[in-house]
Amino acid sequence: MRILAIDPSLRGTGFAILETAGPKVRALAYGTIKNRADLLPSGCLVAIHERISDLIREHTPECAAVEAVIFVQSYRTAITLGAARGAALLAAAGRGLPIYEYAPRRVKQSVVGQGGAQKGQVAFMVRALLGLTETPDADAADALAIGLTHLRAGESAARGLTAPARI
Question: Considering the entire predicted model, what is its pTM?
Answer without folding.
Answer: 0.90
